[in-house]
Write a structure and sequence with these properties.
Layout: E1 3-7, E2 13-18, H1 21-24, H2 30-44, H3 103-119, E3 123-126, H4 136-145, E4 151-155, H5 160-166, E5 172-176, H6 182-187, E6 190-194, H7 195-205
Parallel strand pairs: 1-3, 3-6, 4-5, 4-6
Antiparallel strand pairs: 1-2
Helix pairs in contact: 2-3, 4-5
Length: 206
């Protein structure tokens, strides 16, 4: 079973924690992670872009000049895509970019992402992140002692005081366990989990 360092909120290592091998030590499936990340990014797109085609631009009903005899190229409308103020050729229209991914692939991708962090030694575990009041300095000092600059911090439940302490920090994000995704895990250099988050992840993905 893989082991990672267990730290307290002061940033001191208080031991090691064994992780479930079926979640944190599986073969890394890069293809599954790639597919899931593509779907996540695609599903964030609004798809509201729109431009007018030559049929929708106002004007252009009259032929600008006669067909022959002027010495100029023939044209039937001033709203052709090659004219200034004309319509757009192949104009984008509102559409959905939504992609659906099988649940089994999502599970494989999540376990692969978690395992890759263990393999790269960029996963740490905190015994707890409960704070009596919001205090950014506490989190800043913790990350400094852990020698971490950019991190995704995952808690078991919603820790509002910790969230308020992190929300104005650049390069650091805190989310509850049920809101994490493969993209965020891969995006941040370091993944920091609380013990509660580890237990919940092992319950869901083991």
């Amino acid at each position: 079973m893989p082991k990672v360092g267990l730290y307290n909120i002061e940033g001191s290592q208080i031991g090691d924690m064994e992780l479930n091998a079926s979640v944190f030590e599986v073969p890394v499936n890069e293809a599954a992670m790639h597919q899931v990340i593509l779907a996540l990014l695609a599903n964030k797109r609004q798809g509201t872009q729109s431009a007018k085609t030559r049929a929708e631009v106002r004007g252009g009903g009259a032929k600008p000049w006669r067909q022959k005899g002027t010495g100029r190229a023939r044209h039937g409308s001033t709203r052709s895509p090659i004219w200034a103020h004309g319509g757009v050729a192949f104009a984008p229209k509102p559409r959905s970019y939504r992609m659906s991914i099988p649940k089994s692939m999502k599970r494989v991708a999540m376990k692969s992402a978690l395992s890759s962090k263990v393999k790269d030694e960029t996963l740490m575990v905190l015994d707890s992140l409960k704070m009596e009041a919001p205090k950014t300095k506490t989190i800043t000092e913790l990350l400094k002692k852990l020698d971490v600059k950019k991190a995704l911090i995952v808690t078991g439940d919603v820790e509002m005081n910790a969230y308020k302490s992190v929300r104005n920090m650049e390069g650091v994000t805190l989310v509850p366990c049920n809101n994490i995704n493969v993209y965020d895990i891969i995006k941040y250099e370091t993944l920091i989990l609380t013990q509660d988050a580890v237990k919940k992840l092992e319950e869901v993905y083991a």
